[in-house]
Design brief:
This protein has 333 residues and is of the alpha/beta class. It has 15 helices and 9 strands. The two termini are 22 Å apart.
Length: 333
Amino acid sequence: MTSPLLVRVARREPVERTPVWFMRQAGRSLPAYRALRERHSFFELAETPELCAEVTLEPVRRHGVDAAVLFADIVTPVRSMGVGVDLVEGVGPVVERPVASMADVERMSVGDPDANVLDAIRLVRRELDAEKALVGFCGAPFTVAGYLVEGKPTRDFARTKALMYGEPDVWHALMERLSEQFARYVAAQADAGADVIQLFDSWVGALSAADYAEFVEPYSARILAAVDVPTIHFGTGATERLLAALARAGGDVIGLDWRLPLSAAPEDRAVQGNLDPAVLLGPWELVERAALEVLAQGSGRSHIFNLGHGVLPQTDPDVLTRLTALVQEPVHA
């Protein structure tokens, strides 16, 4: 059986055209999702297999993209560790009891991933065409640790870095525990039917390359090495030096945000990205021109078309459908 197009690109095999999917394509910008959210909380959707599968599949049906991405959140696996966390509208993940000591780390249990997530993956994989990939994902340990230590989203990560620098034993114990749980989580996703795993390091740009190497790299590497399926390693706000450190940690595909050209990714990896999500809020002529520029940058190498971060909630779904069709035109193979 032929592997999905996205999987073949991730393996740097010859393909007939560029595959396309969008981070955060499942949810926010789609009317059917908004209707569901009027009746259910985020985690009710994400942790009910039938509802999660429906939300995951909706953008594939609507836009014709080449991959479904599991509808979940980067804090999903820590809920299985006994951490009280909720998603607050307009804020993001808010942790009931932020991590501040070794005792807090030791209270976090490592165990089996949520069976509901795995059941949703099985449902989606059964529904998807064989040519479409199912992307499972996990938050990277630094980004998730930042939420756990800060207690809510932040931009300066002062408490996180204070723990990292001032109490390295506690920091490394936290990262060890998270990476063990997350390695189990991604391995279970792959066993359940995920064709690709993406590791999201949404806040890695807060680190220097040296700090990443010392405090983060071994733990992200452990997660990326836990599966036999292709992996995508994506971090936002990365400098070229930091990107090199991320690539060293692993990933068959290196994902880039819109701040760096696709040429910044190592030549020995496939590359994913990297249209600025805000461009989709402009006129179609701008979207088309910017998308063609991204495709031109990806020409000649194994390239997965995506945004440089997630779909913004105010994005017109019809623009995503039109952009998908543009990328999938044979001329862009």
